[in-house]
Amino acid sequence: MLKITAQGFFLRLAAIQTSAHSNSQRFTFPPQAAAKSNQKCLSQSQIFCKKLMIKDHYEFDQKVINSDNPVIVNFHAEWCDPCKILTPKMLELLENSNEIDLAVIDVETNLDLVETFEVKAVPAVLAFRNGVVVDKFIGLVDANSIETLIDKLKRKQQQKQ
């Protein structure tokens, strides 16, 4: 059922693009393109299930402060090139982890959270456990540093259980 739904969405998207460009030539996709795009969407959905988008202070309290799992909070901006590298890398490293969540906060739309946590530069990453900051780093770091942070959070989570 998921495959049919994703394919149906893709075809509807193509129809919208076709109607938007009604004065230009017709826009059609061969079935192979729809199937290829469908597979891509399905594979990405597995990654996005761990990513929590925080839109305001209330969501932050609910999804980070009150979380049973440790949460890595990534303060980022759309215009920030290092952020565009760091966020996908963290998603990749957390993809197989059910023990740690990743929350992404856009600094442009969440100025109150930026002020609360005194974020001075992006990317800024804070690790939370039981509503308390237990570790942090600023800027683009290598994958080993991120893995070390994840392992530290996993070990403490296993000790807690």
Describe the structure.
This protein is α/β, with parallel strands linked by helices and 161 residues long. It folds into 2 domains: 2-46, no CATH class; 50-160, Glutaredoxin (3-Layer(aba) Sandwich). Helices cover 52% and strands 18% of the residues. The protein is built from 6 helices and 5 strands, in the order ααβαβαβαββα. The chain has helices spanning 2-20, 31-48, 57-65, 81-94, 111-116, 143-160; strands at residues 51-54, 71-76, 101-106, 124-129, 132-138. Strands 1-3-2-4-5 form a 5-stranded mixed sheet, sandwiched between helices. A hairpin with a 2-residue loop joins β4 (124-129) and β5 (132-138). α1 (2-20) crosses α2 (31-48). The chain is globular, with a radius of gyration of 19 Å. Mean pLDDT is 76; it is low at 1-49.
Task: Name some characteristics of this structure.
disordered N terminus; 6 helices; Thioredoxin_domain; Thioredoxin domain-containing protein; 5 strands; 2 domains; Thioredoxin-like_sf; five-stranded mixed sheet; alpha/beta; 161 residues
